[in-house]
C-alpha cells in the first residue's frame, strides 16, 4: 500500500475546534457576595464582565445532592425555577447593582470546565470556560477568570446516613434563607464549631425545632458568643458523642441514638462539621492547589489570570484546625459504623468493601480477591484515592463524589496510618457537574471537526487484517474506510 | 529459563501481562513502573478487545473468555460487539466490514433496525442497521490491569511502583541490570514495555524505535439500564456499557505530543467531550438524557504503520521491546504470551509475528513524523 504523505494528518485535532461564542475580559463563576463584588469591581474598571451562577439548579440535580447536600429535604417549591429565580434576586439585592454596573449576568448557568493550553494540550484556540444552562452548553473565552464558587458540604457517614433527611449545613442554609423551601421540622445539628452554631441559630430563627447539637469532642468548639446564643436558645448540647444508630421510615430519618444511648427524635440531621472550598474547577483544570487546614482543606494556590475569592479561596482563618477536627469525626465514624454501612451512596460501596478494596456487588469475589485489602495494597505503595476509586467504585457515581470523596480520603489516611495531607486528593474531572449528553453536546460543531473525525487514528495500515495485506482487499479496505486519508 | 530474573520496564497491560506469563513459566519477574500500575493508557482506554487486524487476533480471542479464571480476578470481560450505522455512508462501510469478516470466517450478522434495538435498547429508529460481531468483546481496563498485577504477585512476581527506570547496565552484548534512582536490578533479560517512553529508553541502548505519542479522550455517563449487548460501536465512536451500566465512549481527533523521558506531564481532557457527547446522543438517542459525569484523556504511542512492535533485539540480545501502537489493551493477553515466548524461546510459539518486527522500519526516513503530520502543535 503506497501512502502519499502530505505533511498533514487530516485526523488530528489541529484547527478543528470551534471558536468560543463570546469573549470577556473577565468571567466570574459564582454569584455569591464575593463573586458579585469581583464582577462589579471588574466592570467599574471598564472590563467586559460575565457573571454566571448555577443556581437555581434543577430539582433533579438537587435530588442528586448537587451542588450541595440537600438530603431530599426540599419542598415542591424547588421544582418551580421561576419562583427560585425570583427568590435569588430577592435574597441578593447586589445582583441588580451588578447588572446596573454593566455586568452580564447569567443565572441557572453552570461552569463545568475551564480549559487552556499547557502540558499535554496545545490545540485550544484560546483559554475558555464551558457553560451550560437547561437548554444547551457553550464555550466562552476570557482574559481573566475569578472563581467564586463558594464551599460545599462535608458529609460524614453514620449508621443510616444514606436516607432522606440527612443533609449538609450549606444546603440547609440555602433552602431556609434563600428559597424558604425546607421541608423538615425537627433537626439535629452535628458539630459545635461556628458553622454548626450558626446553623442551629438560623434554624431556630426560621421557627424550626432544634432537637440537639451533637459534638464529638468533649467540649464546644466554636465562638463563645455564638455558643452563648445557642445555650440561651435552649438547644440541648451533647459532647463527646456521635450518632451510633438511627431509625427511619419512608420519608427518611425519624430518630437517632447517640453513643451514650440517648435517643432523639428528629426528621433531619444536619451535618455541620465543615465546609469544603469548591475547588472542582481549579482541580479539573490542573490548577495549583494547597492543603490549608485552617482554611478548610485544599484551596487554590493562586496563579495569574485565575483568581479565587470568597469561601472558594478558603474558609476564614480563625486559627481552628478544620482537618484535625474532621478527622476526629471520621475516627468516631470508623468506630461506630458497622462494616455494611454504605459510604459511597451512588455506587453502594460499604465501609468493609472500601477498606477491603473489594469490587462492587455485581462482580464475583473469588478467594484471591477476598484475600486482598487496603493493607495488601499498601504493601505496593502509598494509598491513592484514584486507584481505590477504580477498584471499589467509591466516588464514581452520579453525585461525582460530592458525598464521599472527602470522608473516603480521611478514612484512607486513618486506615493507612498517615497524616491526611499525604494522601493525594481524588481527582476532579470535567464536567464538574453532571450534564446530560444532549446538553453537553456541541450540536452545531464546525464542519472541520466532522471532517477530521475518525473512530481511532485514521491510520489506513492500522486495521487491515493480516490476511489481507498485499492482496486486492487491502486497497479496497483503504478505499472504503479511509478515503481522504493521506490523500 | 526457570529461576532466572526478568525485569520489565512498565506496568501497563503489556508489561503486566508479559510478567504474568513469565511468572507462570517459573521465571522470577520484577515489574518496575514510574508511578502506579495502569496509570497511563492501560487504565484510560475503551476496553475494546476485537483486533482482527493483528496476527495476535486468534490468541486474543482464545484467551479473553478464560482470563477471569486464569488470573483469578474479574476483568469484566463481555463477549461480542455491534457496529451501528447512523448514516448511509457508515451503513455501506459497516456492511463492507461484515463481508470481509465473513470472508475471513469471523462470525458476524447484519442486523436490521428492529434487531439492533432488540440488542441495544438505547438505540433509536434513526439508525440504518447494524453489524453484530459474534467475536471480540470488551473488558474493564482498570480491573484488568489490577488483575494482571495481582495474579503476577500471586505467582511470586514483584511489582515495584513509584520507580522510574533511568537506565541500563550492559556487558558482553547483554543488559545486565536495570537502574532506577534508588536501586539497580540485576537481570538475565529485560522487557521494555514503557509505552510512549520506549524511544527514550531504547535510545540509551543505541536502538532507534520510531514512535510518536498522542493524546486521546473519552467521556462516561451515569448508569443506564443494562442492555443485552454492551459493546456498542458505530457512528465513528467506540465504547462500552460497563457492567454497572455506564456508557464509556471515545473517538475523534487526537493531538500529537512530545513526551519526554519522564512521561506525559499531564493528560488533560478538552471540550472535545462535547463532540463525543453529540455522537453518543445520536448513536444512542434513548440515552441522550443521561448525565455525563467525567471525561479523561490518555497518551498512547503509534508506530509509523500503526501496528505494534514486538521484537527481541539482536544487540543487546536479551531485550524484548513491546509497543502496542495504540491498540494494546485488547491484545494484552496475547501480547504477553508473545513476549514470554520471545524472552524464553526467542520466537513466538503460536503465530507468526514477523509483521511486528522492529526491522521493518530500517531505512525509515528521518522525517517520518513530519511527513505524516504527526507533529505536536507548535
Ligand atoms: C482513550 C484511549 C482509548 C483506547 N481504547 C482502546 C481500546 O478500546 N482497545 C484497545 O485495545 N486499546 C485501546 N487503547 C490503547 C491502549 O490503551 C494501549 O495501547 C495500551 O494500554 C498500551 O499498554 P502498554 O502497557 O503497552 O503501555 P502503557 O499503558 O502506556 O504503559 C506503560 C507503562 O510504562 C510505565 N513507564 C514508562 N516509562 C517508564 C520508566 N522509565 N520507568 C518505569 N516505568 C515506566 C508507565 O508509567 C506506564 O504505566 C486506547 C488508548 C486510549 C488513550
UniProtKB/TrEMBL annotation, chain A:
Gene3D superfamilies: BFD-like [2Fe-2S]-binding domain, FAD/NAD(P)-binding domain
Domain FAD/NAD(P)-binding: 24-285
A GO molecular function held by the record: oxidoreductase activity
InterPro entries membership: BFD-like_2Fe2S-bd_dom_sf, FAD/NAD-bd_sf, FAD/NAD-binding_dom, Metab_Enz_Cyan_OpOx_G3PDH
Top-rank taxon, per record: Bacteria
One Pfam family per UniProt: Pyr_redox_2
UniProt keyword terms in alphabetical order: Oxidoreductase
PANTHER family: ANAEROBIC GLYCEROL-3-PHOSPHATE DEHYDROGENASE SUBUNIT B
Protein name: FAD-dependent oxidoreductase
UniProtKB/TrEMBL annotation, chain B:
Keywords, alphabetical: Oxidoreductase
Keyword Mitochondrion: no
GO MF terms, alphabetically ordered: oxidoreductase activity
Pfam family name, one: DAO
Tagged with keyword Oxidoreductase: yes
CDD domains (alphabetical): Aldolase_Class_I
Gene Ontology CC annotation, any one: cytoplasm
Ranges for domain Rhodanese: 10-48
InterPro entries (alphabetical): FAD-dep_OxRdtase, FAD/NAD-bd_sf, Rhodanese-like_dom
Protein name, per record: FAD-binding oxidoreductase
Species in which this protein is naturally found: Sphingorhabdus wooponensis
Amino acid at each position: 500500500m503506497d501512502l502519499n504523505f502530505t505533511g498533514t494528518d487530516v485526523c488530528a485535532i489541529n484547527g478543528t475546534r470551534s471558536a468560543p461564542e463570546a469573549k470577556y475580559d473577565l468571567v466570574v463563576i459564582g454569584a455569591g457576595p464575593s463573586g458579585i463584588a469581583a464582577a462589579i469591581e471588574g466592570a467599574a474598571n471598564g472590563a467586559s464582565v460575565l457573571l454566571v451562577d448555577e443556581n437555581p439548579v434543577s430539582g433533579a440535580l438537587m435530588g442528586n445532592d448537587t451542588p450541595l447536600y440537600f438530603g431530599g429535604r426540599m419542598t415542591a417549591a424547588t421544582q418551580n425555577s421561576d419562583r427560585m429565580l425570583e427568590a435569588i434576586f430577592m435574597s441578593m439585592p447586589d445582583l441588580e447593582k451588578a447588572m446596573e454596573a454593566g455586568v452580564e449576568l447569567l443565572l441557572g448557568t453552570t461552569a463545568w470546565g475551564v480549559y487552556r493550553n499547557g502540558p499535554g494540550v496545545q490545540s485550544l484556540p484560546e483559554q475558555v470556560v464551558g457553560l451550560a444552562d437547561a437548554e444547551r452548553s457553550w464555550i466562552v473565552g476570557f482574559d481573566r477568570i475569578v472563581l467564586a464558587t463558594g464551599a460545599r458540604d462535608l458529609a460524614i457517614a453514620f449508621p443510616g446516613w444514606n436516607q432522606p433527611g440527612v443533609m449538609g449545613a450549606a444546603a440547609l442554609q440555602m433552602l431556609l434563607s434563600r428559597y424558604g423551601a425546607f421541608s423538615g421540622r425537627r433537626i439535629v445539628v452535628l458539630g459545635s464549631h461556628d458553622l454548626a452554631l450558626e446553623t442551629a441559630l438560623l434554624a431556630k430563627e426560621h421557627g424550626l425545632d432544634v432537637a440537639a447539637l451533637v459534638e464529638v469532642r468533649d467540649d464546644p468548639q466554636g465562638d463563645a458568643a455564638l455558643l452563648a446564643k445557642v445555650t440561651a436558645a435552649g438547644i440541648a448540647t451533647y459532647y463527646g458523642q456521635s450518632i451510633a444508630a438511627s431509625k427511619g421510615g419512608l420519608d427518611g430519618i425519624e430518630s437517632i441514638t447517640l453513643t451514650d444511648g440517648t435517643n432523639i427524635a428528629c426528621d433531619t440531621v444536619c451535618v455541620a462539621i465543615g465546609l469544603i472550598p469548591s475547588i472542582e474547577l481549579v482541580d479539573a483544570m490542573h490548577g495549583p492547589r494547597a492543603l490549608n487546614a485552617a482554611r478548610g482543606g485544599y484551596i487554590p494556590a493562586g496563579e495569574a489570570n485565575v483568581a479565587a475569592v470568597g469561601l472558594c479561596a478558603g474558609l476564614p482563618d480563625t486559627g481552628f484546625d478544620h482537618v484535625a477536627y474532621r478527622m476526629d469525626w471520621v475516627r468516631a465514624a470508623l468506630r461506630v459504623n458497622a462494616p455494611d454501612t454504605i459510604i459511597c451512596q451512588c455506587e453502594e460501596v460499604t465501609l468493609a468493601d472500601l477498606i477491603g478494596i473489594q469490587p462492587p456487588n455485581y462482580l464475583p469475589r473469588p478467594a484471591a480477591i477476598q484475600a486482598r485489602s487496603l493493607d495488601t495494597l499498601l504493601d505496593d505503595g502509598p494509598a491513592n484515592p484514584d486507584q481505590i476509586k477504580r477498584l471499589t467504585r467509591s466516588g464514581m457515581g452520579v453525585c461525582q463524589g460530592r458525598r464521599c470523596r472527602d470522608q473516603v480520603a480521611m478514612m484512607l489516611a486513618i486506615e493507612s496510618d498517615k497524616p491526611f495531607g499525604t494522601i493525594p486528593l481524588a481527582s476532579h474531572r470535567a464536567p464538574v457537574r453532571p450534564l446530560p449528553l444532549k446538553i453537553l453536546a456541541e450540536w452545531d460543531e464546525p464542519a472541520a471537526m466532522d471532517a477530521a473525525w475518525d473512530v481511532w487514528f485514521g491510520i489506513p495500515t492500522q486495521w487491515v487484517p493480516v490476511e489481507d495485506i498485499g492482496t486486492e482487499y487491502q486497497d479496497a479496505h483503504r478505499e472504503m474506510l479511509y478515503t481522504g486519508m493521506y490523500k | 529459563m526457570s529461576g532466572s530474573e526478568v525485569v520489565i520496564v512498565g506496568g501497563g497491560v503489556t508489561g503486566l501481562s508479559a510478567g504474568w506469563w513469565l511468572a507462570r513459566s517459573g521465571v522470577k519477574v520484577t515489574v518496575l513502573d514510574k508511578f502506579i500500575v495502569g496509570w497511563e493508557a492501560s487504565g484510560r482506554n475503551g476496553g475494546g478487545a476485537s483486533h482482527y487486524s493483528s496476527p495476535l487476533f486468534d490468541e486474543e480471542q482464545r484467551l479473553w473468555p478464560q482470563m477471569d479464571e486464569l488470573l483469578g480476578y474479574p476483568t469484566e470481560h463481555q463477549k461480542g460487539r455491534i457496529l451501528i450505522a447512523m448514516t448511509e455512508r457508515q451503513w455501506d462501510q459497516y456492511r463492507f466490514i461484515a463481508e470481509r469478516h465473513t470472508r475471513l470466517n469471523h462470525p458476524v450478522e447484519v442486523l436490521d433496525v428492529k434487531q439492533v434495538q432488540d440488542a441495544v435498547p438505547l438505540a433509536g429508529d434513526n439508525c440504518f442497521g447494524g453489524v453484530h460481531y459474534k467475536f471480540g468483546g470488551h473488558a474493564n481496563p482498570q480491573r484488568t490491569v489490577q488483575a494482571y498485577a495481582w495474579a503476577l504477585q500471586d505467582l511470586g512476581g514483584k511489582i515495584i511502583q513509584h520507580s522510574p527506570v533511568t537506565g541500563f547496565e550492559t556487558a558482553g552484548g547483554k543488559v545486565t541490570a536495570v537502574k532506577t534512582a534508588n536501586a539497580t536490578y540485576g537481570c538475565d533479560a529485560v522487557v521494555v514495555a514503557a509505552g510512549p517512553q520506549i524511544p527514550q529508553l531504547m535510545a540509551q541502548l543505541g536502538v532507534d524505535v520510531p514512535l510518536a505519542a498522542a493524546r486521546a479522550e473519552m467521556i462516561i455517563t451515569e448508569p443506564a439500564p443494562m442492555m443485552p449487548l454492551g459493546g456498542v460501536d458505530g457512528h465513528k465512536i467506540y465504547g462500552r456499557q460497563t457492567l454497572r451500566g455506564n456508557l464509556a465512549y471515545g473517538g475523534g481527533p487526537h493531538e500529537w505530543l512530545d513526551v519526554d523521558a519522564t512521561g506525559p506531564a499531564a493528560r488533560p481532557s478538552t471540550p472535545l467531550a462535547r463532540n463525543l457527547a453529540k455522537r453518543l446522543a445520536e448513536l444512542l438517542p434513548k440515552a441522550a438524557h443521561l448525565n455525563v459525569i467525567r471525561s479523561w484523556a490518555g497518551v498512547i504511542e503509534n508506530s509509523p504503520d500503526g501496528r505494534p512492535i514486538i521484537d527481541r533485539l539482536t544487540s543487546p540480545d536479551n531485550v524484548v521491546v513491546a509497543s502496542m501502537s495504540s491498540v494494546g489493551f485488547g491484545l494484552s493477553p496475547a501480547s504477553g504470551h508473545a513476549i514470554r515466548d520471545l524472552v524464553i524461546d526467542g520466537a513466538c510459539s503460536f503465530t507468526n509475528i514477523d509483521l511486528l518486527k522492529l526491522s521493518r522500519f530500517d531505512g525509515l526516513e528521518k522525517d517520518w513524523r513530519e511527513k505524516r503530520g504527526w507533529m505536536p502543535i507548535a
